[in-house]
Specification:
Number of helices: 2
Helix content: 55-70%
Strand order of the largest sheet: 1-2
Distance between the termini: 73 Å
Number of strands: 2
Radius of gyration: 25 Å
Structural class: mainly alpha
């Protein structure tokens, strides 16, 4: 009898865990669907903008690719991402990783990381 109660309790806990996991999966799937919509919208916007610029200006696909590479390398890494720019310490002027809050050389405060959209 005691064993049956223990088993029933464990079964209830497992069912609750399964329901929570299922709910988490549903939320994750909804989030992924929203992100996919955003990516598609951004892709469409970028393509339309590029076609307008190419038509109105004297721009080529090669020029676009070169600029994309330049922007990608601004953070020192070729990774297909726009990364935060290194921040210079206001005390010693040395460049620091933007993830640090204090200068690794002198301990001075660093400005918050920023992305450059210029």
């Amino acid at each position: 009898m005691l064993w049956d109660l223990i088993q029933q309790r464990q079964i209830g806990q497992v069912r609750q865990s399964a329901a929570e996991a299922s709910s988490s999966i549903d939320r994750t799937q909804a989030t992924v669907a929203e992100l996919e919509k955003l990516v598609e919208s951004l892709s469409l916007t970028c393509q339309a903008m590029w076609e307008l610029l190419r038509k109105q200006g004297d721009l080529t696909d090669e020029m676009l690719l070169k600029k994309m590479e330049e922007v990608d390398l601004r953070d020192g890494r070729r990774d297909g991402k726009i990364g935060a720019q290194p921040s210079n310490c206001s005390s010693c002027s040395r460049p620091n990783n933007p993830r640090h809050r204090n200068c690794v050389y002198c301990g001075g405060s660093l400005p918050p990381p920023k992305h450059v959209f210029a």
